[in-house]
Design brief:
binds flavin-adenine dinucleotide; 5-stranded parallel beta sheet; alpha/beta; 24% helix; single chain; 17 strands
Length: 324
Protein backbone atom coordinates (compact mmCIF):
# COMPACT_ATOMS: atom_id res chain seq x y z
CA UNK A 1 0.00 0.00 0.00
CA UNK A 2 1.48 3.30 -1.15
CA UNK A 3 1.36 6.14 1.41
CA UNK A 4 0.38 9.65 0.29
CA UNK A 5 0.57 13.05 1.91
CA UNK A 6 -3.05 13.65 1.04
CA UNK A 7 -6.22 11.94 -0.14
CA UNK A 8 -8.95 14.16 -1.56
CA UNK A 9 -12.41 12.60 -1.63
CA UNK A 10 -14.60 13.96 -4.43
CA UNK A 11 -13.62 15.17 -7.92
CA UNK A 12 -16.09 18.06 -8.02
CA UNK A 13 -14.76 21.52 -8.88
CA UNK A 14 -13.49 22.03 -5.34
CA UNK A 15 -11.84 18.61 -5.03
CA UNK A 16 -10.04 19.37 -8.29
CA UNK A 17 -8.99 22.79 -6.96
CA UNK A 18 -7.53 21.04 -3.89
CA UNK A 19 -5.61 18.65 -6.16
CA UNK A 20 -4.15 21.56 -8.10
CA UNK A 21 -3.00 23.33 -4.93
CA UNK A 22 -1.51 20.08 -3.56
CA UNK A 23 0.36 19.57 -6.81
CA UNK A 24 1.66 23.17 -6.76
CA UNK A 25 2.87 22.62 -3.17
CA UNK A 26 4.70 19.41 -4.13
CA UNK A 27 2.50 17.15 -1.98
CA UNK A 28 1.75 13.60 -3.08
CA UNK A 29 -2.00 13.18 -3.44
CA UNK A 30 -4.83 11.26 -5.07
CA UNK A 31 -8.34 12.54 -5.78
CA UNK A 32 -10.82 9.68 -5.43
CA UNK A 33 -14.24 10.02 -7.04
CA UNK A 34 -17.12 7.57 -6.90
CA UNK A 35 -18.59 8.58 -10.25
CA UNK A 36 -17.37 10.40 -13.33
CA UNK A 37 -15.33 13.61 -13.24
CA UNK A 38 -17.43 16.44 -11.71
CA UNK A 39 -20.13 13.87 -11.08
CA UNK A 40 -22.64 16.32 -9.55
CA UNK A 41 -22.41 18.72 -12.49
CA UNK A 42 -22.85 15.79 -14.86
CA UNK A 43 -26.14 14.97 -13.11
CA UNK A 44 -27.50 18.52 -13.26
CA UNK A 45 -30.41 19.19 -15.67
CA UNK A 46 -29.22 18.85 -19.26
CA UNK A 47 -30.24 22.39 -20.30
CA UNK A 48 -28.99 24.05 -17.13
CA UNK A 49 -27.16 27.40 -17.27
CA UNK A 50 -24.99 28.42 -14.32
CA UNK A 51 -25.97 31.55 -12.44
CA UNK A 52 -22.28 32.44 -12.15
CA UNK A 53 -20.32 33.93 -15.00
CA UNK A 54 -17.63 31.59 -16.30
CA UNK A 55 -14.59 33.38 -14.84
CA UNK A 56 -16.04 32.84 -11.35
CA UNK A 57 -15.99 29.08 -11.88
CA UNK A 58 -12.34 29.00 -12.96
CA UNK A 59 -9.80 26.97 -11.01
CA UNK A 60 -6.05 26.55 -11.35
CA UNK A 61 -5.71 29.64 -13.54
CA UNK A 62 -7.22 27.84 -16.55
CA UNK A 63 -9.38 30.32 -18.49
CA UNK A 64 -13.03 29.33 -18.84
CA UNK A 65 -14.33 30.54 -22.20
CA UNK A 66 -18.06 30.16 -22.78
CA UNK A 67 -20.38 31.34 -25.56
CA UNK A 68 -22.44 33.51 -23.21
CA UNK A 69 -21.25 35.15 -20.01
CA UNK A 70 -22.98 32.38 -17.99
CA UNK A 71 -21.85 28.93 -19.09
CA UNK A 72 -24.01 25.91 -19.70
CA UNK A 73 -23.69 22.52 -18.01
CA UNK A 74 -22.00 21.01 -21.07
CA UNK A 75 -19.51 23.90 -21.30
CA UNK A 76 -18.68 23.33 -17.63
CA UNK A 77 -18.04 19.62 -18.25
CA UNK A 78 -15.71 20.51 -21.13
CA UNK A 79 -13.96 23.06 -18.92
CA UNK A 80 -13.31 20.77 -15.94
CA UNK A 81 -12.12 17.96 -18.26
CA UNK A 82 -9.67 20.45 -19.70
CA UNK A 83 -8.53 21.53 -16.23
CA UNK A 84 -7.92 17.91 -15.31
CA UNK A 85 -5.85 17.15 -18.40
CA UNK A 86 -3.91 20.41 -18.45
CA UNK A 87 -2.85 19.98 -14.80
CA UNK A 88 -2.42 16.19 -15.28
CA UNK A 89 -4.29 15.67 -12.02
CA UNK A 90 -4.03 12.34 -10.26
CA UNK A 91 -7.72 11.35 -10.25
CA UNK A 92 -9.23 7.91 -9.75
CA UNK A 93 -12.79 7.71 -11.07
CA UNK A 94 -15.59 5.23 -10.34
CA UNK A 95 -14.03 4.37 -6.99
CA UNK A 96 -16.16 5.05 -3.92
CA UNK A 97 -14.53 5.76 -0.58
CA UNK A 98 -16.30 3.56 1.95
CA UNK A 99 -14.28 4.11 5.10
CA UNK A 100 -11.83 6.65 6.50
CA UNK A 101 -10.17 5.40 9.67
CA UNK A 102 -8.11 7.72 11.83
CA UNK A 103 -5.10 5.79 13.10
CA UNK A 104 -3.48 8.66 14.99
CA UNK A 105 -0.48 9.48 12.80
CA UNK A 106 -2.25 8.63 9.52
CA UNK A 107 -5.56 7.75 7.92
CA UNK A 108 -6.47 4.41 6.42
CA UNK A 109 -8.84 4.85 3.49
CA UNK A 110 -10.84 1.94 2.09
CA UNK A 111 -12.49 2.24 -1.30
CA UNK A 112 -14.46 -0.11 -3.53
CA UNK A 113 -11.21 -0.85 -5.39
CA UNK A 114 -8.23 -0.30 -3.09
CA UNK A 115 -6.82 0.76 0.28
CA UNK A 116 -4.75 3.91 0.81
CA UNK A 117 -2.78 5.47 3.62
CA UNK A 118 -2.42 9.23 3.94
CA UNK A 119 -1.24 11.85 6.41
CA UNK A 120 -4.24 14.05 5.69
CA UNK A 121 -7.68 13.80 4.09
CA UNK A 122 -9.85 16.46 2.46
CA UNK A 123 -13.58 15.80 2.20
CA UNK A 124 -14.92 17.62 -0.86
CA UNK A 125 -18.08 15.52 -0.87
CA UNK A 126 -20.69 18.03 -2.01
CA UNK A 127 -24.34 17.46 -1.11
CA UNK A 128 -25.94 16.15 -4.28
CA UNK A 129 -26.13 12.43 -3.51
CA UNK A 130 -28.83 12.27 -0.86
CA UNK A 131 -32.17 13.79 -1.81
CA UNK A 132 -34.59 14.74 0.94
CA UNK A 133 -37.23 12.08 0.71
CA UNK A 134 -40.92 12.83 0.96
CA UNK A 135 -41.34 9.70 3.10
CA UNK A 136 -44.85 9.09 1.88
CA UNK A 137 -46.75 6.18 0.39
CA UNK A 138 -46.01 5.71 -3.32
CA UNK A 139 -42.64 7.50 -3.31
CA UNK A 140 -41.00 4.36 -4.70
CA UNK A 141 -43.15 4.36 -7.88
CA UNK A 142 -41.13 4.81 -11.10
CA UNK A 143 -43.04 8.01 -11.94
CA UNK A 144 -41.48 9.76 -8.91
CA UNK A 145 -38.12 11.44 -9.62
CA UNK A 146 -35.73 13.18 -7.23
CA UNK A 147 -33.43 14.27 -10.06
CA UNK A 148 -34.56 16.07 -13.18
CA UNK A 149 -32.78 15.82 -16.49
CA UNK A 150 -34.80 17.24 -19.37
CA UNK A 151 -38.36 18.31 -20.25
CA UNK A 152 -39.14 16.13 -23.27
CA UNK A 153 -40.51 13.06 -21.40
CA UNK A 154 -43.09 15.26 -19.69
CA UNK A 155 -44.70 16.69 -22.85
CA UNK A 156 -48.48 16.34 -22.61
CA UNK A 157 -48.25 14.90 -19.08
CA UNK A 158 -49.72 15.96 -15.76
CA UNK A 159 -46.67 16.82 -13.71
CA UNK A 160 -46.56 17.69 -10.00
CA UNK A 161 -43.49 19.66 -8.95
CA UNK A 162 -42.83 19.54 -5.22
CA UNK A 163 -40.89 22.45 -3.68
CA UNK A 164 -40.52 26.21 -4.06
CA UNK A 165 -36.78 26.83 -4.29
CA UNK A 166 -34.57 27.34 -7.36
CA UNK A 167 -34.63 23.76 -8.68
CA UNK A 168 -38.40 23.40 -8.31
CA UNK A 169 -39.03 26.71 -10.02
CA UNK A 170 -36.64 25.95 -12.91
CA UNK A 171 -38.24 22.54 -13.42
CA UNK A 172 -41.79 23.90 -13.27
CA UNK A 173 -41.04 26.61 -15.85
CA UNK A 174 -39.06 24.39 -18.20
CA UNK A 175 -41.55 21.50 -18.25
CA UNK A 176 -44.49 23.91 -18.63
CA UNK A 177 -42.75 25.66 -21.56
CA UNK A 178 -42.23 22.27 -23.21
CA UNK A 179 -45.87 21.28 -23.01
CA UNK A 180 -46.43 19.71 -19.58
CA UNK A 181 -49.47 20.49 -17.43
CA UNK A 182 -47.71 21.62 -14.26
CA UNK A 183 -48.99 21.83 -10.68
CA UNK A 184 -46.67 23.00 -7.92
CA UNK A 185 -47.21 21.72 -4.38
CA UNK A 186 -45.63 24.19 -1.98
CA UNK A 187 -45.45 23.83 1.80
CA UNK A 188 -44.86 27.55 2.38
CA UNK A 189 -47.18 30.43 1.48
CA UNK A 190 -44.98 31.79 -1.33
CA UNK A 191 -42.15 31.07 -3.76
CA UNK A 192 -38.88 31.17 -1.80
CA UNK A 193 -37.16 34.55 -1.49
CA UNK A 194 -33.86 32.86 -2.45
CA UNK A 195 -35.07 32.08 -5.99
CA UNK A 196 -32.88 33.84 -8.58
CA UNK A 197 -34.13 37.41 -8.91
CA UNK A 198 -34.49 37.18 -12.69
CA UNK A 199 -36.57 33.97 -12.46
CA UNK A 200 -38.87 34.75 -9.49
CA UNK A 201 -41.20 37.18 -11.35
CA UNK A 202 -41.49 34.69 -14.21
CA UNK A 203 -42.86 31.89 -12.02
CA UNK A 204 -45.00 34.25 -9.95
CA UNK A 205 -46.61 35.64 -13.08
CA UNK A 206 -47.17 32.16 -14.59
CA UNK A 207 -48.93 31.17 -11.35
CA UNK A 208 -50.95 34.40 -11.26
CA UNK A 209 -52.18 33.94 -14.84
CA UNK A 210 -53.02 30.28 -14.10
CA UNK A 211 -50.59 28.75 -16.63
CA UNK A 212 -48.82 26.92 -13.81
CA UNK A 213 -51.14 25.79 -11.02
CA UNK A 214 -49.90 26.10 -7.47
CA UNK A 215 -51.17 24.91 -4.11
CA UNK A 216 -49.54 26.92 -1.31
CA UNK A 217 -49.48 25.88 2.36
CA UNK A 218 -50.02 22.38 0.99
CA UNK A 219 -48.38 18.98 1.27
CA UNK A 220 -48.44 15.82 -0.77
CA UNK A 221 -49.20 12.76 1.35
CA UNK A 222 -49.93 9.86 -1.03
CA UNK A 223 -48.93 8.93 -4.58
CA UNK A 224 -50.66 6.26 -6.67
CA UNK A 225 -49.91 5.29 -10.29
CA UNK A 226 -52.53 7.77 -11.61
CA UNK A 227 -53.07 10.30 -8.81
CA UNK A 228 -51.55 12.33 -6.02
CA UNK A 229 -53.29 13.23 -2.77
CA UNK A 230 -52.57 16.57 -1.17
CA UNK A 231 -53.50 18.35 2.02
CA UNK A 232 -54.48 21.98 1.36
CA UNK A 233 -55.96 24.74 3.54
CA UNK A 234 -59.26 24.00 1.75
CA UNK A 235 -59.12 20.30 2.64
CA UNK A 236 -57.66 17.17 1.07
CA UNK A 237 -57.68 16.85 -2.72
CA UNK A 238 -57.03 14.05 -5.19
CA UNK A 239 -55.40 15.19 -8.44
CA UNK A 240 -54.83 13.19 -11.61
CA UNK A 241 -51.11 12.80 -12.10
CA UNK A 242 -48.56 11.17 -14.42
CA UNK A 243 -45.24 12.27 -12.87
CA UNK A 244 -44.00 13.66 -9.56
CA UNK A 245 -40.79 15.72 -9.69
CA UNK A 246 -39.73 16.03 -6.07
CA UNK A 247 -37.35 19.00 -6.08
CA UNK A 248 -37.06 19.04 -2.31
CA UNK A 249 -33.31 19.51 -2.01
CA UNK A 250 -30.35 17.38 -1.05
CA UNK A 251 -28.20 16.88 2.03
CA UNK A 252 -24.54 16.09 2.76
CA UNK A 253 -23.59 12.54 3.80
CA UNK A 254 -23.72 13.21 7.55
CA UNK A 255 -23.41 9.55 8.59
CA UNK A 256 -20.23 9.12 6.56
CA UNK A 257 -18.78 12.27 8.14
CA UNK A 258 -19.79 11.14 11.64
CA UNK A 259 -18.12 7.77 11.05
CA UNK A 260 -14.80 9.66 10.79
CA UNK A 261 -15.32 11.40 14.13
CA UNK A 262 -16.50 14.77 12.79
CA UNK A 263 -18.81 16.60 15.20
CA UNK A 264 -21.59 19.05 14.36
CA UNK A 265 -22.89 22.31 15.77
CA UNK A 266 -26.31 22.16 17.40
CA UNK A 267 -27.72 24.67 14.90
CA UNK A 268 -30.63 24.15 12.51
CA UNK A 269 -28.24 23.42 9.64
CA UNK A 270 -26.28 20.69 11.37
CA UNK A 271 -23.13 22.58 10.41
CA UNK A 272 -19.97 20.49 10.73
CA UNK A 273 -17.34 21.72 13.16
CA UNK A 274 -14.33 23.19 11.33
CA UNK A 275 -12.00 26.14 11.63
CA UNK A 276 -12.61 28.94 9.13
CA UNK A 277 -8.89 29.80 9.27
CA UNK A 278 -7.69 26.35 8.22
CA UNK A 279 -10.80 24.36 7.17
CA UNK A 280 -9.64 21.60 9.53
CA UNK A 281 -12.44 19.73 11.31
CA UNK A 282 -12.33 18.72 14.98
CA UNK A 283 -10.26 15.73 13.75
CA UNK A 284 -6.60 16.65 13.22
CA UNK A 285 -5.58 16.62 9.53
CA UNK A 286 -9.13 15.95 8.36
CA UNK A 287 -10.33 18.93 6.31
CA UNK A 288 -13.57 20.04 4.65
CA UNK A 289 -13.78 21.87 1.32
CA UNK A 290 -16.59 23.16 -0.87
CA UNK A 291 -20.32 23.02 -0.37
CA UNK A 292 -20.20 20.23 2.22
CA UNK A 293 -19.06 22.87 4.76
CA UNK A 294 -22.54 24.41 4.93
CA UNK A 295 -24.31 21.34 6.31
CA UNK A 296 -27.99 21.69 5.47
CA UNK A 297 -27.48 25.31 4.44
CA UNK A 298 -26.80 24.22 0.88
CA UNK A 299 -27.08 27.72 -0.54
CA UNK A 300 -24.23 29.11 1.58
CA UNK A 301 -21.29 27.80 -0.45
CA UNK A 302 -20.94 27.67 -4.23
CA UNK A 303 -18.09 26.99 -6.58
CA UNK A 304 -17.34 30.71 -6.82
CA UNK A 305 -17.02 31.36 -3.08
CA UNK A 306 -15.51 28.03 -1.99
CA UNK A 307 -12.68 27.72 -4.55
CA UNK A 308 -10.56 29.50 -1.98
CA UNK A 309 -10.84 26.56 0.46
CA UNK A 310 -8.21 24.72 -1.58
CA UNK A 311 -5.52 27.36 -0.97
CA UNK A 312 -6.41 27.70 2.72
CA UNK A 313 -6.12 23.96 3.35
CA UNK A 314 -2.92 23.39 1.42
CA UNK A 315 -1.31 26.41 3.08
CA UNK A 316 -2.12 24.92 6.50
CA UNK A 317 -1.03 21.43 5.55
CA UNK A 318 2.20 22.54 3.91
CA UNK A 319 3.00 24.59 7.04
CA UNK A 320 2.52 21.53 9.26
CA UNK A 321 4.60 19.30 7.05
CA UNK A 322 7.55 21.68 6.78
CA UNK A 323 7.67 22.38 10.53
CA UNK A 324 7.85 18.64 11.35
C1 LIG B 1 -28.67 23.15 -10.33
C2 LIG B 1 -27.47 23.78 -9.67
C3 LIG B 1 -26.90 24.94 -10.19
C4 LIG B 1 -25.76 25.52 -9.62
N1 LIG B 1 -25.21 26.66 -10.17
C5 LIG B 1 -24.10 27.19 -9.62
C6 LIG B 1 -23.49 28.38 -10.15
O1 LIG B 1 -23.97 28.96 -11.10
N2 LIG B 1 -22.38 28.85 -9.54
C7 LIG B 1 -21.80 28.24 -8.48
O2 LIG B 1 -20.77 28.73 -8.00
N3 LIG B 1 -22.35 27.14 -7.93
C8 LIG B 1 -23.49 26.62 -8.49
N4 LIG B 1 -24.08 25.50 -7.93
C9 LIG B 1 -23.50 24.93 -6.81
C10 LIG B 1 -22.29 24.11 -7.31
O3 LIG B 1 -22.57 23.37 -8.45
C11 LIG B 1 -21.88 23.22 -6.33
O4 LIG B 1 -21.61 24.15 -5.30
C12 LIG B 1 -20.61 22.49 -6.75
O5 LIG B 1 -20.90 21.30 -7.41
C13 LIG B 1 -19.83 22.30 -5.51
O6 LIG B 1 -18.63 21.71 -5.78
P1 LIG B 1 -18.03 20.69 -4.74
O7 LIG B 1 -16.76 20.23 -5.38
O8 LIG B 1 -18.01 21.26 -3.37
O9 LIG B 1 -19.08 19.49 -4.67
P2 LIG B 1 -19.60 18.51 -5.82
O10 LIG B 1 -19.44 19.14 -7.15
O11 LIG B 1 -20.93 18.04 -5.42
O12 LIG B 1 -18.55 17.33 -5.76
C14 LIG B 1 -18.56 16.33 -4.77
C15 LIG B 1 -18.05 15.06 -5.40
O13 LIG B 1 -17.79 14.10 -4.38
C16 LIG B 1 -18.13 12.83 -4.88
N5 LIG B 1 -18.31 11.94 -3.74
C17 LIG B 1 -19.25 12.03 -2.74
N6 LIG B 1 -19.09 11.01 -1.87
C18 LIG B 1 -18.04 10.27 -2.29
C19 LIG B 1 -17.40 9.09 -1.80
N7 LIG B 1 -17.80 8.46 -0.68
N8 LIG B 1 -16.34 8.59 -2.50
C20 LIG B 1 -15.89 9.21 -3.61
N9 LIG B 1 -16.47 10.33 -4.13
C21 LIG B 1 -17.53 10.85 -3.48
C22 LIG B 1 -19.41 13.11 -5.68
O14 LIG B 1 -19.66 12.08 -6.62
C23 LIG B 1 -19.07 14.44 -6.34
O15 LIG B 1 -18.48 14.30 -7.62
C24 LIG B 1 -25.21 24.93 -8.49
C25 LIG B 1 -25.78 23.77 -7.94
C26 LIG B 1 -26.91 23.21 -8.50
C27 LIG B 1 -27.52 21.98 -7.86
Amino acid sequence: MEGKDLIIIGAGPIGLACGIEAQKAGLSYVIIEKGCLVNSLYHYPLNMTFFSTSERLEIGGVPFISNSPKPTRSESLEYYRRVCTSWKLNVKLYEKVEEVKNEGDAFNIKTTKDTYRAKAVILALGFYDLPYLLNIEGEGLPKVKHYYDEPHPYFGQKVAVIGAANSAVDVALETWRKGAEVTMIIREDAIRESVKYWVKPDIENRIKEGSVKAFFNSEIFRITPNTIEIKTPAGNKILENDFVLAMTGYQPPFDFMKSMGITFHKDEYHTPVYSEETMQTNVTNLYLAGVVCGGLKTNKWFIENSRVHAEIIIHDLKGKMTTK
